[in-house]
Amino acid sequence: MNNSLSSRDILAIGLMVFALFFGAGNMIFPPALGQAAGEDVWIAALGFLTTGIGLPLLGIAAIAISNGDLETIAGRVHPKFGLFFTTIVYLTIGPIFAIPRTATVSYEIAVVPYLSKFSEDYEWVAKMVDQTSWLPLFLFVVLFFTVTLLFALNPSKLVDRIGKILTPILLAVIVILVIKGILFPLGDLQSATGNYAKEPFFTGFVDGYGTMDALASLVFGIVIINAIKQRNVTNPKIIAKSTIKAGFISASLLGAVYLALSYIGATSRDLTKDADNGGAILSIIAKELYGPTGTAILGAAILFACLTTAIGLVSACGEFFSKVIPGVTYKQVAVITTLIGATIANVGLAKLIEITIPVLLMIYPIAIVLMILTFLHPFFNGYQAVYVGAVIGALLISIFDGLNAFGVNVTQIIDFFNSFLPFYSKQVGWLVPSLIGGLIGFVIAILTKQEEKPLQ
């Protein structure tokens, strides 16, 4: 029985992890950050890296040392909470939000520019698009998710297909896009704007939420572990070390890409000042650097990034829901997940994107607290009361942040938080209440002689 992995195997798994994490959001958020942060781009990027890389790596490590999955970690609060929170996370980064977004963003960046050009050049194309505006997106979504499903239906081939085939292609197109932008900047760094002028680090910190990678790490962690186990590694310590090593490989690649894209965005403000999102910024930069070829390079990068992420998410959802729903197989879940994602991508994504950030504001602090407690677990003897107190403390704040972002009138409560809650203005107001809740839980556990629980 093999109880070790070769460096080549770890590299392949690390490349797979990078490809799983690197989706459309990872391409479009850094340039927007750079454009707004200007001269403060490196401080802002540091905040972005904290949540965009640090938290995902923390999540992978938490799964690795727990020798379990997200449900195991969240279940330390209560088994029912573990199942509920895990289900919410899988739905959020699965068929409800992230999976549909991969197809729609791919379509808008990789297809729409050419569709617009063909509409200008050919009258029959313009007429078809005008009369059946839904058809091009529908056809693309069908093709996109057909390819996704074909890859996801055989998870045992995930490492070979993604780590060894798709990832090198993805890295190649990213390098082609950014290298000229670094060597030949499109402009000078200018003063920061908006929130980046006031709080560059913490603004970047919160913007990192949008990647959803911290949540994805709690899902992909078990995918990595399964990929290692499929290579006949059975020693839990070797599995944990290999998982963390693969995570570091992924984090290093993500960090390099984020910094490069942030710098390109920061040096192109004059050129992209009218663009209102990272995708538009990248499109302008790509066309300026490489002409029409640049548009094709960007489209390829986005398409491969979204495709690999969609494959990983469908696979992860298949693993989880086939485990918790009796009588349902992995392949059945993969098909259902793909169909739901395809349906939403066609008819409901625009509205769902509007509520993505409010949902993330509600659940991200809980995920962060669970990760941190996993590493502190031995220091407080794994008392359940500590988990309960810390999660409740974070939830009491995050739920109002989410409601406020949804447009619910909680102005008085938000004003109170702004006035009396430390760090609330920096958008991490949940930190102190979570700490207080955990300390209260620890005291309760001591007084009630609560059972000590080792890290499993």
Concise description?
The chain has 456 residues and is mainly α. Helix content is 79%, strand content 0%.
Question: Can you walk me through this structure?
Answer:
The protein is mostly helical and 456 residues long. The chain contains 22 helices and no strands. It is globular and about 75 Å long. The mean pLDDT is 83.
Question: Key features?
Answer:
22 helices; 79% helix; mainly alpha; globular; 456 residues
Counting DSSP E segments of at least 2 residues, the number of strands comes to: 0
Mean pLDDT across the residues is: 83
Coarse structural class: mainly alpha
Low-confidence stretches: none
What layout of secondary structure does this protein have?
Blueprint: H1 7-21, H2 24-37, H3 41-66, H4 70-74, H5 79-96, H6 98-121, H7 123-131, H8 134-152, H9 158-183, H10 195-198, H11 200-207, H12 213-229, H13 236-266, H14 269-272, H15 278-290, H16 292-324, H17 330-347, H18 349-354, H19 356-376, H20 384-406, H21 411-420, H22 431-447
Helix pairs in contact: 1-9, 1-12, 1-13, 2-3, 2-13, 2-15, 3-11, 3-12, 3-13, 3-19, 5-16, 6-7, 6-8, 6-16, 6-17, 8-16, 8-17, 9-13, 9-16, 12-13, 12-16, 15-16, 16-17, 19-20, 20-21, 20-22
